Amino acid sequence: MLSTFLVEHRWVTPVLLLVLVVAGLLVGPGLVRRPRLAWALAGLSVLPLLALTLVPTSRELVAGCEVQWAWPTPARVEAFANLVLFVGPVFLAGAATRRWLLAAAAGSASSALVELLQAVVPLLGRSCDTNDWLANTLGSVLGGALALLVLRLARRRAVVRVD
């Protein structure tokens, strides 16, 4: 159902990614100074991620994992949506902890855990796929890079205020 919507409205995920980046740049430096708020927003941003990856579907699948590698592009709507799915939580965790690289690594590891659960719990009705992990990891790297940029902006603003 969601995949069908995304195929019919291919513009949604690129626009969502653009909104995440622009909003992150605008509010990110303030979130760096308010880590509790950043953590709260990170927790909220994980809810759709969990719903889209671990809520059971009506399909029954045989345990296993599809091994394939394809670069997520806006034309590959499901893969690109998987990329966008991890940008927000990783960005917010990176801003909250001030450890962008750790946040990106945790995002990739979380994705691997989700795929592992999908592989070993067929009752979820979800397919394990290495493409999903790749797209999620790239989204984690993008979220981490956005956090790094915001951390530098926040540091620069703090130096300017002191002078």
Walk me through this protein's architecture.
Residues 58-149 form the VanZ-like domain. By secondary structure, the protein is mainly α. The protein contains six helices and two strands. It has a two-stranded parallel ribbon with strand order 1-2. Helix 2 (12-33) runs parallel beside helix 4 (77-97) and helix 2 packs across helix 6 (130-162). It is elongated and about 60 Å long. The model has no long low-confidence stretch (mean pLDDT 90).
* Rg, Å, rounded: 17 Å
Q: Treating each run of at least 4 consecutive H or I residues as one helix, how many helices? A: 6
Q: Shape from CA axes?
A: elongated
The largest sheet, given as strand count, sense and whether it forms a barrel, is: 2 strands, parallel
Mean pLDDT: 90
SSE string: HHHEHHEH
Helix content: over 70%
- SS content category: mainly alpha
Labels describing this entry:
single chain, 163 residues, mainly alpha, two-stranded parallel ribbon, 6 helices, 2 strands, 76% helix
In short:
This is VanZ family protein. 76% of the residues lie in helices and 2% in strands. With 163 residues, the chain is mainly alpha-helical.
Write the layout of secondary structure elements.
Elements: H1 2-8, H2 12-33, H3 35-54, E1 65-66, H4 77-97, H5 100-120, E2 128-129, H6 130-162
Parallel strand pairs: 1-2
Helix pairs in contact: 2-4, 2-6, 3-4, 4-5, 4-6, 5-6
